[in-house]
């Protein structure tokens, strides 16, 4: 634990090696990573390497109670995995409780030695981690919300590389500054490590060329504004094409829902040209409005896989399993809430509110421990309604620890359909263990007859986390070529807490490269 001051108020936070944000891990494609995590705090801990494929090494994926039991206080665990077929920016973060609010950092995967980027090599690189800060302890924030059945307090500020920048009533110094030289180009590795906010990112007077998302190359395009959801990463190239000066970088909320109270601040940082006096004024940028859906859609709609000879987009053209998952929030009665007989916000996929088991699913699967989970996760919603309109008042979810079982190498299509029971909301859904292609996207209800005719099976964006549009749907495809148990959930942490999560169980194949490796000897016990 480390006492840390932000917004003129101090609290102890959990850190890795005393750093907030945590240390950057640099690796190269094909590297074997051995990372020993020693738990010196009072909380159970586990670390997830968000977006790493973990081929055959599901034991090292990290979500607590899914692939491993947590590392208990005083214990340690070595995460051992190889980076295969991936290069770019990813992130690592705690995957238990709300500890990822302070336990997160960058994972930079450089291309193999001698292999260039598929775009002109930038002169310099920098890591830009966006996150959120609460003045109070985040475990207390979520516990209070769970006791009341209501939504948790929103964060007090956003941060860029750990700092909100100067804020009213707390003229803190120490905002992040990126020094630049006129005429040079900079690769910014943007990471959204926030718990509950999708963010816009802008730099005053500079356009951003997007070259990669979620460690997959994209067809480069220019934009003023990047939209980035929790768990997503985006590499942009910025040309320092001014003679000098100071320019504001801003990270602000995108949430196209009717929102009641919001007081979290836009985070700011500075692009500072060499030779510019500290005292000179900073060119200002106005962040997009919170409900700037058009800006968000323009950005999302511009993303395409690079799909070059070297980096082909291997989109599954046929599908073995076609699934429809509704994702959304609802209200269930809550006799035990305070005040009593109130109601509780719940979330689910196909009306199943996922209940965390007390033994990791992967252990239960491999060691054949009965009674931990069932394999009856529904491939379709229990009943149909106008998902994007106002649905039944009560989501009527049932609790369960259910997985959806897939044969090795099956090609899978999942249409993720947002439901508007409380309010339509954009859900950044993350799939562990795979990259998927986002082949289609639309508003309203997905139409299985007509919508697939417009799918992009040539160069759809490939990623590990994607926003299901508010009041709409997104279709993703992946090949189940990674045996193990793989979590899928909304990366808005509060929605995960409420149950917007499930897991796929992928069976072993026949060949030696098609099976999960045996568990590591130091695998934590529950
Ligand atoms: Cu980045 Cu399951 O999470």
UniProtKB/TrEMBL annotation:
It catalyses: 4 hydroquinone + O2 = 4 benzosemiquinone + 2 H2O. The keyword Protease does not apply. One of its GO terms (biological process) is lignin catabolic process. SUPFAM superfamilies: Cupredoxins (SSF49503). Its cofactor is Cu cation. It is found in: Secreted, Extracellular space, Apoplast. Its main location: secreted. Residues 2-112, 126-275, 379-509 form the Plastocyanin-like domain. Its EC number is 1.10.3.2. Keywords: Apoplast, Copper, Glycoprotein, Lignin degradation, Metal-binding, Oxidoreductase, Repeat, Secreted. One of its GO terms (molecular function) is copper ion binding. It holds the Pfam family Cu-oxidase_3. One of its GO terms (cellular component) is apoplast. Gene3D superfamilies: Cupredoxins - blue copper proteins. Binds 4 Cu cations per monomer. NCBIfam families: laccase. Belongs to the multicopper oxidase family. Lignin degradation and detoxification of lignin-derived products. This is Laccase. It comes from Dorcoceras hygrometricum.
